[in-house]
Structures are given as structure tokens and as C-alpha cells.
Fold this sequence. Notes:
Elements: H1 4-11, H2 15-30, E1 36-37, H3 49-60, H4 64-67, H5 77-91, E2 100-103, H6 105-117, E3 123-127, H7 133-139, E4 144-148, E5 170-176, H8 188-205, E6 210-214, E7 237-242, E8 255-258, H9 266-279, H10 287-296, H11 303-320, E9 324-325, E10 332-336, H12 342-351, E11 354-355, E12 357-358, E13 367-371, H13 376-394
Parallel strand pairs: 1-11, 3-4, 3-5, 5-6, 6-7
Antiparallel strand pairs: 2-8, 7-8, 9-10, 10-13, 12-13
The structure holds pyridoxal-5'-phosphate.
Amino acid sequence: MVSKSMEQLVKGNSVIRALFEEGKEMAAKVGAENVYDFSLGNPSVPAPKAVRTSMKRILDEDNSLYVHGYMSNEGYEEVREAVAASLNKRFGTSFAMSGILMTVGAAGGLNVVLRTLLDPGDEVICFAPFFGEYRNYVSNYQGSLVVIPPDTDTFQLNLSMLDEHINERTKAIIINNPNNPTGVIYSGETLDKLEAVLKAAEARIGHSIYVISDEPYRELVYDGAVVPFMTKHIRNTIICYSFSKSLSLPGERIGYLAVPEEVDDYAGLVQGMAIANRVLGFVNAPSLQQLMIKDCLEEQTDVGAYDKNRKFLYTSLKDMGFECVKPEGAFYLFVKSPVEDEKIFVAEAKKHHLLLVPASSFGCPGYVRIAYCVSYDMIERSMPAFKALAETYFG
Length: 395
Ligand SMILES: Cc1ncc(COP(=O)(O)O)c(C=O)c1O
């Protein structure tokens, strides 16, 4: 018999995953070409060629015991050195190899950090709208997620409400920049203000509050936008990076945690994270993927393809009468539901075989998320369906 807590998780299973499955069933009935599935953040741009070239090279070399063997729980030293050097070159930082831990994607990294920081009953703050899995990850360690309501005027961090949500149990804040689901980039000015609130709060509660910077979309930005590098603004930062989106490798499960030496209790943190990686059962990030990443740190996905989708979808939906947040990064369009209960809107969209995600699952009811990391062709084909949907509401 499964545990009570698992029964709860089964009941509240991911809306996004459920939609994805529904899309497959719909496709079996009406044909895949007539279903417009905008539910999942699964990249449509193939991984750069260098990824395959590197994996082939690694496999062809006669060193299989090294390539497929166990290594330190933190990852291969040569890979961690390379990650630190690449960050330092790009962002003018001074990460040491000891502060880099290779992870099983951002999901693995977030779990490692939370396992390291949380005691039962501890609190983690996040700002709505947020990636819904944070709730599950925090509850994995009997912590509770405290959600700050969204600022629907700007979708920047709603800092005016932060201080009142911080208390002695607050251990960390999760920031996701660029943001899933809005595509908004939090500015350097916003992050400086966040740091000021945190400093005052730390003095009040008497212990550190870490900012976990979840950055799978760091490289996916448009119109020359710049994502501020967190450690330049927030001292107690733990960076959680993933190659799932930036190199289109979500199934390969590879990312890293980066901790700057100036954080409080650096030694305790990095030691704890290595042990967390082991005791959570990850043991280490996939070995072949780690070695490939070392070769591909300077590689980039074709952001231009997502940009083309972004411009077309944003302009078309605005022209039809929908209110949309203009995405500056990531690959999601956040759209205001024309009716208060966005679930009704999502159900209406389904009648046109459009699969959109209700933003209640991101802590922001009244909105929907459209993942535009799909083919341009599908977006073009979906236009009559969006037009028909728009006519239901705007005539
Ligand atoms: C904001 C955010 N964080 C974390 C993840 C998990 O990414 P990964 O595939 O690296 O585990 C995702 C995936 O969509 C995401 O959108």
C-alpha cells in the first residue's frame, strides 16, 4: 500500500503532465496534425551537433572504465573545473571547482539544495507565478512553500510583500530568472532591492537566508535582453543550472549547482550538497553527459527559432484581442484568461484541440501558459483554432 503522502501526490498529479497525456489521446482520435499541444516545455530545437560529436568521441576513446565508472559524488573534477572556468570567464566571477556540483538536471539540483538546507517545518519562499514542482520538492523534506502573490502589473518580484512573509523558519527563497511561466526577466535593480530586504531580515531573524537561483532559461533571451548574474546582486546565492533547455537535453538529466565562496557556511553547504546527492540516490550526475558538457560549455541552442515563434504568437494573439505578457526570455507566453476562471477558458480551448496550461498550477489563477517551444509550422496551423477561440470571447 502506498503512503498517505504519495496518495496525496497521486491525487494532485501534475496538470501539465496530464495535459500532455490528454494530447496524445486526442491525437489518436483526431490525428496528430490537428492537435495543438502547447503544454510542455520540451524544446523543439535539436541539440547542437557538437553534443553528438562529443558523445561519439568520448565513447570511441578506449577509456570505458573512466567514462562509465563511479566518480566523486560532486562529479568529475575536470568537468567541475571547466564549469567554474567557463562561468568565471563569462561573468567575471571567481567560482572554485569545490563550489561546483554536477546534478541530475535542475530538478535534481533543487532537491539536493533543499535536502541540504531544510529541517522539517522550515519554510521556503517563492514568488508567484512559479514553477509548480517547487511545492513538491519542498514537501519532499517536510518543508513548506510560502507563496508571495503575484504583481500582475509588472510580473516582477512582489517585494513589497516579502518582509512580512519572512520569519525564523525561513531558510531560502527560490527565484527563477528568466521566469517560467511569464517569460519576464527580473532586473538587476529588483535583485538589489531583494538583497536589501534579505539583509535586514537576516539581521532580524538571526540566520542566513539563501537565494536559490533556478536558471534553466538563462541563455534563452530575446531582443538583446540581459539576465543579471545573481551573485553580483545577492551574496547568499546558490545557482541551480540545467542544460535541459539551453542545449535541448531534457531527457539526459544534466545540470550543475554553483556556490560562490562568499556565501555563509560555504564549507558546510558544499559538503552537505555532495552527501545529499548521494543519499537522495542520484549518487552522481550521469557520467557520459558530464564529460560531454565539458566539451559543449560554449555551445548554444538556436534561440532565433524560439524568437520567431515568440514574435508570431505574441503579435497574432494580441491582434485577436488576447492580453499577453511580452516574453523577454524562456519560451512561454503568459496570457490573461478572458473569463475569471481560467480553467473554463482552458476547457473551451480544448474544444478547438488547443492545449494550454491553467496558471493556477503556477500560483496565478486567471492566466494560462502557452509553451511556444514547438514547431513554427504547428503555431501557423493552430491560428484558425485560436481565432475561433477568440471569437467566443471577443466576437
Ligand atoms: C523553472 C524550472 N525549473 C526547473 C525545471 C526542471 O528542469 P530540469 O529538466 O533541468 O530538471 C524546469 C523545467 O521545465 C523549469 O521550468
